[in-house]
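Hi D.,

Good news: the full-assembly prediction came through. Inputs first.
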Amino acid sequence: MTADTSVTVDGDRFRDRFDAFNEIGATEAGGVNRPALSDANKQARDRLVEWFREAGLDVRVDAMGNIFGRREGRDPDAATVLFGSHVDSQYNGGRYDGVVGVLGALEVVEALNDAGVETDRPIEIVAWSNEEGVRFQPDMLGSGVYAAEFDLEYAYGREDDEGRTFGEELERIGYRGDAPCEPGDLHCYFELHVEQGPFLEREGVPVAAVEGVYGFAWLNVTFEGQANHAGPTPMTMRRDAFVGAADVTKAVRELTATEGTDLVGTVGSVDVWPNAINVIPERVEFTVDLRSYDNATVAAAVERVRNEVAWAAEREGLDHEVEEIMRIDADPFDEGCIETVVEAAEDAGCEYTRLVSGAGHDANYLNTVTPTSMIFVPSVDGVSHRESEFTEWDDVVAGTEVLLRAVRKRAEG
Amino acid sequence: MTADTSVTVDGDRFRDRFDAFNEIGATEAGGVNRPALSDANKQARDRLVEWFREAGLDVRVDAMGNIFGRREGRDPDAATVLFGSHVDSQYNGGRYDGVVGVLGALEVVEALNDAGVETDRPIEIVAWSNEEGVRFQPDMLGSGVYAAEFDLEYAYGREDDEGRTFGEELERIGYRGDAPCEPGDLHCYFELHVEQGPFLEREGVPVAAVEGVYGFAWLNVTFEGQANHAGPTPMTMRRDAFVGAADVTKAVRELTATEGTDLVGTVGSVDVWPNAINVIPERVEFTVDLRSYDNATVAAAVERVRNEVAWAAEREGLDHEVEEIMRIDADPFDEGCIETVVEAAEDAGCEYTRLVSGAGHDANYLNTVTPTSMIFVPSVDGVSHRESEFTEWDDVVAGTEVLLRAVRKRAEG
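Then the structure:
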C-alpha cells in the first residue's frame, strides 16, 4: 500500500480538457448531442484516442467499439485494473454524464505520468459504447457484450429509428475494432459517475462510495374498455380505460409511501386510444417502473400493482393485462472494492458517504466479471439526461482524487 | 290537420334501400367507411341523387355540397318543411348514424307519393356535408355554413391530414353545386337520428322526442413538472406531471357523481412527455369534456376542475395551465316542434319518451335559423361511431312513421 500523498490530479488541466471535449456536439442550451455512433460521437471518440495516445497509452478498440487505453505495469503477467465510463450522450443531454468518468480516468493517468509513478499491475481506461441506449436499445450494450450478457450478432443487429443497424453504423464511423470484445485478465473495475439523484447535494457531501444498484421490475399494463361518445353515455354505464390507468397511478404513488421501504414507483409512458377529446378512452397502455435495493420489496410491489390493476378493472368493467417485461435483481458491488473507495476517500481527506444507486450503469455488467464499485459525485438538483445537468467542478475534482487513490491502492498493492 | 292514418311507410322497401346503400364503402366487419368527400362518399351521393330523382324530387346541390330534394306543395309561396340528416361516416363507422335520417326522409316522400298526398307547403329532404368532422374539422360544417356559423371560404380552406382542402375535394367529386348555401324561406326542420346513447334501449322505448342538446365545455389542461430518472429520484422530491393528471381524472369522475345533476365528464385525450418507461413525466397535456343540459352546472364544473387542477399542482409542485377551448350553451329545441313530434308519435300509436341529447347534431345549427326538433331511435348498447353500431329495424321504421306524421302535420296544416 502506497502512502504517497503528493500525487494529485490537476483540476485546471482536467477542466480545460472537459470544456474542449464538450465543444463537440455542443447545444445552444449548454448541453451536448452525441448519441451513440453519431458523427459527433465519432468526433468525440477521435479526440479521446488522440488524447489517450498523447498520454502514452496503448489504444485498443474492440469489436463493439469500446475504446481502451492501456498503461503497462511492472508485472506484465498481473491482472488489469480497469476504470472508465462512456462518452455517448442522450439526445440533447448533459455534459457530465459519462464524460466525467472517462476524462477523470485520463486525468488519473496524467497525474501518474506527471509524478512518474509506475504501478505493479497494468491499468486500463475505457470508454464503453452505447451506454445511454437512446438510439440503439438496449442500453449498456458495449459493456453488456463485453460481459457476455448479449452476443455480438445481436448487438450488431440492433436498429435505430431509421432502420440503420448498430453494426453498419459502427463500421461507418470507423470504430469496429479488431480486438475481441471480452474481459481479459481483470483485477477489478472502478467507475466515477455523476449521481443522477439528489442525495449527495442534499447531504452536502462531495463523494459517495457506491454499494450497489437497485433492482427493478418493469410492467406493461393494458386496460380495454369501450369507446363511446362522451356526451350521451351516462357515467354509470362507462367502461373508461383511462380512469383505470388513473386509479393505478394513484395506487403506485400510495404504495411507495409505505413506511420502512426504499421503494420508488413511476408511471412513465402512457398511450391512450382513440385519444379524442369527446370519446371515452377504449384502450390505455402504460408502464410501471418499480425499484428497491431489496428484491423482496420489488416482488411484493409487483404483486400489489397486479392486484390494483385487477381491482381497477373490476370497478370500471375493463379487460386487463399485466406483462412483466423486465426484472433485474438488486446488484450489490464487491465489498473489497467498496472498502477501497472508502479508504481512498479517507486518504484524500474527502468527506464521503455510502450510497445505493437507483440507476443502472456499465458497472453492473462489469460486476458480473470482476470485483467492482463506483464513485459518485453530486448532481445539482438531482438532474441528469438534460442540458441543464450540472456538477460543481470542485466535486468532480474530489471524485477524481478518490478514483486516483482507489486505482493506486489496487494497482500498486 | 290531416287525420289520414292510412299513409304509412313501407319498412321492407326502406330496408332494401338501406342495405343496398350500405354496400357502398362497406367494411368486412359490417360497417361503412365513407368519410366526407371520399370516393365512397361520392358514390353514396350519386346513389342518393338518383333515388331523389326517381322519387320525383327536384334535386339541388349547394355551394357546400349539401344535397336537397324538393317536393312542391299546393302553395308555391309557403315556407318549406325541411328534414334529413347526413350520409358521411366516421372512418370505419356504423351503417345507421345519419343514413337512417336521410333514407328515412326519402321513405317519407315515397309514402306520400304512393298515397297521392299533396301537401300545402313544399317539403325538402336534405343530406348535409361533413357532419362527422373526422376528415375535415370542425364537424357539422355543411349545416354550419348554411346557418352562417362559418363562412364559405373558411369551410373551403379546411384541410385533411394530407393537406387536401375541403374546397378542392368537393370540386374533385363533382359536388360543388351552384345553389347558394343559405336557408331559403323555412317553416321548420326535423331530423331522425340514432340516439348514440343507451337511454331508449334501457327504457325499452322505440322513439324519443328530442327536447334539446346538452351544453358543454372543453378544457385543455397542461401540467409541467420535472423529468428525472425513475430510479435515483426519491418520491418526496418528485414533480410528476402524470400524477397530477391522474388526480384530476379521479376528481372529474367524483365530480360527476354529485347527486342531483346530469353532469358527465370525460378525460379523453392524454399526451405525456417524454413518455419513457424510466423517466418521470415532465409534461402532460390532457382534455376535459364536461356536459349538462344546465349551463350553470357546466359553469360550476369548469370552476371545480380549475380548482382541482390548482390543488393537484400544489400537491405535486407542478406548473399548470387550463385553457377553455370551447363552451357551447345547452340548446333547447322549439317547443312547437317538440310538441309536433309528440303528437306524431301518439298518432302513430308509438310508445315514446322525451329526451335530451348528449351529442351535437346538424339540428343544432338548424335550430338557429328555423324551429327545430329531432326524433331519436334506440342504439343497441348505446354504441355509435363503430362498425358494431346497430338499431333494431322495427325501431327504425317506428321512428320513420313518426317523422312522416310530423312532416305531414307541419306541411299540411
